[in-house]
Design a protein that fits this description.
Length: about 325
């Protein structure tokens, strides 16, 4: 069990040292030119300001001996240019990755002692760190990949018109690796919109498992095999073959919807992809796969590099 009073969660210097050890196990690497030839600089005091009459102190500064640029471990990451202490970033990351159904910005705001606006923006930056680049290898080696769609938001009943007005998500779960990947779909669900998603994530030698939606029958021909269960006829597990089901991905949807309705409650369509990516990350790195909270947090913290997320990109506080 993680000790939330550990130095990296309570002290900014300890947090910086922890992050440096995680990102630079063999010493500093310049984010500007990639050089490992560097020297540490003494603490730098900035100009006096109203908030810091004696000038704020910048610690952990390193100068590259090749390109002569100065940097810290947060330069070129989603933590860059933040006035929030680094220990609070590490604590927020740990809370987000260890909360199965997520943690709201309001809760982060109360626990970290920062404004709600800062907590909301912080959570989106951490979600950006959780984002991984698809490799097209789900189901590689002939394992089974479950694919299904779900609908969320703007609930107006179960009629066809009400469902059309809801946000659409297509998710995939690789049974062999336990990995999940999801995409928000704004076009009409069909072979034209779902085909590129499968091509992006699923290996050609995978075994596809879906429900009885007609467009999967065409798409399934591209893969090693395609089986499905006919939910319209009340079939959820094939009687003569218990491996023919979509129960795995239904379980993933259950976690996602309980989190969205019970924790986040309101989410604009423009932000939905970031939220479902957060659930993908936790599911793909869950304890059932032998990954504990500390290791999951380290995976997220390794993902901060090479990514930037400005307030302008994610828009106003609307979710």
């Amino acid at each position: 069990m993680t000790n939330l009073t550990a130095p990296r969660f309570t002290d900014a210097d300890a947090a910086r040292e922890y992050l440096e050890a995680l990102h630079w196990p063999e010493g500093p690497v310049c984010p500007h030119c990639g050089s490992v030839n560097a020297r540490r600089l003494p603490d730098q005091r900035g100009k006096p300001s109203k908030r810091h009459p004696e000038g704020s102190v910048r610690k952990g500064l390193i100068q590259c001996n090749d390109c002569r640029q100065q940097y810290t471990v947060t330069v070129g990451t989603v933590f860059s240019d933040s006035k929030i202490p680094l220990n609070k970033w590490l604590l927020a990351t740990h809370l987000m990755v260890s909360s199965k159904k997520g943690i709201s910005a309001h809760q982060l705001h109360r626990m970290l002692g920062i404004t709600y606006k800062s907590a909301w923006f912080m959570a989106h930056r951490i979600r950006e760190a959780m984002t991984t680049t698809p490799g097209g290898d789900m189901g590689s080696g002939g394992s089974m990949v479950e694919v299904d769609e779900t609908f969320i938001g703007r609930n107006g009943g179960n009629s066809r018109m009400a469902i059309r007005n809801m946000n659409q998500i297509v998710s995939l779960v690789d049974r062999a690796t336990g990995r999940a990947a999801s995409v928000v779909v704004f076009d009409t669900l069909g072979a034209k919109s779902i085909g590129p998603i499968l091509s992006r994530y699923v290996a050609s030698d995978a075994k596809l498992m879906t429900d009885g939606a007609h467009f999967y029958k065409t798409l399934g021909a591209r893969y090693a095999s395609h089986d499905y269960v006919d939910h319209a006829r009340g079939e959820y597990v094939r009687k003569d073959d218990k491996t023919i089901h979509t129960n795995t991905i239904e379980g993933f949807f259950g976690i996602f919807k309980r989190g969205m309705k019970g924790v986040y409650q309101h989410c604009g369509a423009q932000h939905l992809q970031r939220y479902i990516t957060e659930f993908d990350f936790r599911y793909s790195n869950r304890s059932g796969l032998g990954i504990g909270d500390d290791e999951r947090a380290e995976i997220a913290l390794r993902g901060i590099a090479g990514k930037r997320l400005t307030y302008r990109r994610i828009g106003p506080v609307a979710a």
